[in-house]
Amino acid sequence: YYRGRQSLRRLYAYGAASSDSSLQQADAVVQLADWDLLYSHNSQAMESYELAQSMLQEGGAAESSIEQLFGPPTPVVLPAFQPNPLARDETRAENGYIDVEFEITRYGRSRAVEILDDANATRAAKQDLMALIRSSRYRPRLTEGAFAEVTPVRMRYYLYE
What sections of 39-142 are H helices per DSSP? Predict the structure, then answer.
């Protein structure tokens, strides 16, 4: 944990020293916050997320930039530097889908997972998706400009051969 955090702090310091844009600096702060949250340093992570949000707002970042960091259609699964297992793979042909709804808490945990609809999904695929959602940690989401205690998410998970 500590080595990884030191590396991320250095990246932020290099970016700040080289006068990176507020979006790049905020992204570095979000990476630090993701790392803290992944290792259950919840209060430290939330302080960093809020700092990144204020950096973006004070820097005049477009609402779409803030949305991309804190509220994309597909939730950000931590660690964010690895491929998101919930993201759609545009290079492969889908052979089905599962529509799912769940809540993400302020500290990146999931709860209240419910399958809404599916097409061509096996029982095993549905169980695997539910296990993935329950066992993953997520970046908290902004709701009306604040990190809510709980944020509902509804998404489509695609199945591949």
Answer: 42-58, 63-70, 123-135
Q: Tell me the sheet residues that pair with 78.
A: 137
Each as own residue / partner, the long-range contacts of residues 29-35 (CB below 8 Å, 24 or more positions apart, any chain) are 29/55, 30/69, 30/139, 31/80, 31/81, 32/5, 32/8, 33/139, 34/76, 34/78, 34/79, 34/80, 34/139, 35/1, 35/4, 35/5, 35/8, 35/79
Q: Give the whole-number percent of the chain exceeding pLDDT 70.
A: 99
**Cα-based torsion angle of the residue sequence 126, 83, 137, 139 in order, rounded to the nearest 10 degrees:** -120
Question: Is pTM beyond 0.85 here?
Answer: yes
One-letter amino acid at 60 equals G
